[in-house]
Amino acid sequence: MPNRFAQQAVPNSSGTERPKLKAPANAADCHMHIYDPRFPQPTPRPSPSNAAVPDYRLLQKRNGTTRVVIVQPRNYATDNLVTLDAIAQLGPNARGVAVLHPTVTDAELKKLDAGGVRGIRFSLGDPASAVVSIDMIEPLSKRVAALGWHVQLHMPGELIAANADLLRRLPSQIVFDHLGRLPLPAGLDHPAYQVIRGLIDKGRTWVKVSGAYLNTRLGPPTYADATKIAQAYVKAAPQRLVWGSDWPHPSEKDKPDDALLFDLLAEWAPDEATRNRILVANPEVLYGFGKAA
After folding, report:
1. pLDDT greater than 50 at residue 3
2. Are the CB atoms for 94 and 117 separated by under 8 Å?
3. Whole-angstrom Cα distance, residue 250 to residue 35?
4. Gap between the Cα atoms of 228 and 234, Å rounded
């Protein structure tokens, strides 16, 4: 007879054990993606299968998070219906980050805002699959600042350093994906880190402590090089950090263990009060959790 207490596997995630670290009440996963076959993908970029809302709910059961921020994947370009639909399915504990072009209308912005969107993403690391460009950041930042939204930047450290002046003059808040994607082995010694730190010190910039496997040459289980970067952010500005799973890990052929990724927080932020801030209080400020969606 099968063991009815056995852990259930989560699609796009290795391992089945729960994290050792217990998630606090209202913990937020502030970076994940939904790929729903009901919605057409205008780009040829391969997408993970079994990555719709019911699949993601299994990850929530495994790691104990209850709030979520759905980040629009590049695969759907600027058609944000898949993200709006996922927010609606997941309910008041969900928010979203859209992908837009400067041609977006005010009416569309209001619709997205009402649907739970709180920011827009620029993924600029791979020109072959990018659906936005650097020249779109400033005009869109001006458009969304009035809504209280942020611009979320997934860009290599070299681009961050090269565009420091642009980033400093943006009127909206800024969120850097995946530890800022600092080039290795330079890491914290790369000029991009000082650019990000300077923006944080101005009080309007956030960093997602996520994507350990995108910031490592050493790999699991310790992701020691990514851990060094994460610990530096935690020491410098714990009030400006949020955590994300990056499920379903679209960049990874061999899927990581999500329990291990969550447990990294115990090393990145050993103090429980700091972890709770990263998982609960900071997302409430940045995404408006706890308020009407």
Report:
1. no
2. no
3. 10
4. 10
